[in-house]
Design goal:
about 425 residues; alpha+beta; Hypothetical protein af1432; 4-stranded mixed β-sheet; 3-stranded antiparallel β-sheet; about 50% helix; HD_domain
Amino acid sequence: MDGKIIHDGVHGSMKLTGIILDLVKTPEFQRLRNIRQLGLAYLVYPGANHSRFEHSLGAWHLAKRLSQEVGLDENESMLLQVGALLHDIGHGPFSHTFESIYKHYVKEHDHMHLGQDMVLGKVNITESENGGRIPEIIEGYDYDFTPKDVADLIRGKHEKHYLGHMLHGDVDVDQLDYLVRDAHYTGVAHGIIDLERLLKVLRIHEGELVVDEKGIEAVEGMMVARSLMYSRVYFHHTVKIAEGMLTRALEFALEEGYLWDFWRMTDCRVLVELEDLEGFPAEMVRRIRYRELYKAAVLASADELTSEEKRELLTAYRNVKRRQEIERTLADMVGAREGEVILEFSIADLMLSEPRLKATEINVLLGNGELQPLTKVTPLANALKRRQTPRWAVLIAAPKEYVPKVREVWRKVIFS
């Protein structure tokens, strides 16, 4: 039989053939089996062991279905499918966990740029000699697109906006898959969405991806799910504490001149390498392994901060050195060792008094043929975009014996 059947826990049986099967067989794509989709969330939700591999297959599967629903021609359909399959190819270990330190330590390698370079054949991230063949595979098929077209689509820079929005928009195949998948594996019912309906109500109208007026409720349901998953799972404070501890272990290693190629590694490899360094990194890995996590000393919401304080925190959010300085001062003040007090921020949008609304807002095609932005048609969308943040803006964690002291002095240290 031609092709391969893969049985997915969320979408059921999926048949892989041709270019998709060849790309799935590459070492770069197989590497994603060893990168957890939700970083360290399994410490809070024990079922959250799913990988970027299965999410990428799920996004491809939905791209294939959406292509059929909106009537893309074969070339555009395959371009979208390849883009969806490879959209996370550049992810480093533990997915988004180390995202905040990429800019500071390895400027050229955030996961989007790295993914683009892999698709263009500029970097082989794996240790396999069969790596680096992605562009060759794409060019080996007789489709009317190039590796550069795929890279542009993944980066959200493709000239056909509707294709870009199907992969990075208000309603896109990436989100549709991760919401359903993350809800399934965490056991958190908030992420449940009407997937079938959503695929049926998207249209291409005058070169843009729009949602049919009949589908407003399905989109609202998806936005509610996304908002609740953000606060309940993606920014769960215990998950953020664990990720903060692991990030500090990696920062320590980088400052000492080790692990500069961490972005090439898989989850297990990073843990083993950090453990081999002994000292502070090894202690952090051991604590994570046995779930001996720091405790939250401060969980402050945006409402508890003045606009001056928000500005001060935004500076620290953007500047790794400033954040490390605050952590060291706090540790000194309470008698802890360096690395034993960690400061985490929820997304910077929350720090700014008005959250930045996504520029790629989807339009609604009304019954009379008129187009209106989603937020004009449904006040719920507006409210949800504002809410799409966790309840806390600032999180400070430390071993439990330092918690009372940290609570006493944190404001004085950060804001004086």
